Amino acid sequence: MKIAHVLRRLSFDDWGGTEQVVWNLAKAQKAAGHEVRILATQALCMTPHETVDGLEILRFPCVYPWWPMSPRLIADLDRKGGNPFVPGLGRAMREWKPDIIHCHAMARIAELCLRTSRKIGAKCVISLHGGATNIPTVEAKSLKSPTRGLFPWGKLLDYAMRWTRRVPEDADGIVCVGEDEYANYKRHHPHVLFLPNGVDVSLFAKAGESATSSIPNHFRILCVARIDRQKNQMTLVELLARHPQATLRLVGPVTQPDYREELVSRAKELGVEDRVEFAGALSPGSPELLAEYHNADVFVLPSRHEPFGIVVLEAWAAGVPVLASNVGGLGRLCAAHPDAAVTFPSDALDSLDAFFLRLFKSPQLRENVVSAGHRAAQEYDWHTLDDKLLAFYATL
Questions:
Q1: Does the predicted TM-score (pTM) go above 0.85?
Q2: Domain total of the chain
Q3: Residue numbers of the domain that contains 231
Q4: For residue 215, what pLDDT band results from cuts at 50, 70 and 90?
Q5: Is the dihedral of CA 384, 390, 394, 396 positive or negative?
Q6: pLDDT value at position 208?
């Protein structure tokens, strides 16, 4: 079977949850004997063609349809959002003629995949990764803010091309990472699969390298997530002010630079700036990322909304006790394994503080949570999940 995975961007220096899902599913499908290609825009990576771990990656120039466009705005949209036109993408798919076009983006890229599939007789599957059914209003507005006040000339082209935006509804199949989305689309579409994110258990169980933190002799808090208001790292900065023995490592790409500035400013106001470290984006499965998990005393994900939370699986597999906000699919993931994580209401600093103290003061509790996390991680191995996805393709 020829499978094309299409996503908005794929940069090994600037990684996120969607990229990790696509990469691991593609590797598992290739290992199962299928012909697999990954197609993306050149956002954050201008390399047009490369082969990594036997997987062919094609990247295409994209155009953001607003006027005027500054270099800084283009860089911001490369990181997050943008809804670009990608002229060469459709042609590449028509020439290769995959059996399955599996799109991991929405809007114009999704519609392009859908239209191309109809032209070449392929099946189009669209994955929903971002909690599209339950993004808070404030978060939704922040996504649109970079282009507010600009002329949206792309809408004129959409109208001329008669783009319908009937995605994902018109796709042959819909794959949902979040249970909210699954419940929503299952009522209206005949082919919907709930497929949670996964983890390479054997990889994250390996011992990490030597400590990367420059701040020794502290209780080390780790958060692996893009620097973004959705991920709510500000709560962790506030937590530090209550615990002078704690340090914080923030691992992940910066998708909202102004939010990073807010985190740094608040840390200075609270006098904790010397205990906050930004590690930047780390490659998936890299020794540096493994070291971050294995050097941590506790992993905290305080997101305001989250369709799943793949990093929780990594923390479980790596043997790190988990604290997570009780929101969306993340809350349900933890509820399904109640002994493997301690949850708290999003933005509820006092609740987070209370649970943090419990973990800090009780080595036995930490050991129990870690053991339960190891058991939970086994259920989400990538090869198991890919078997379910391939079976879903066969039903279309």
A1: no
A2: 2
A3: 201-380
A4: low
A5: positive
A6: 42
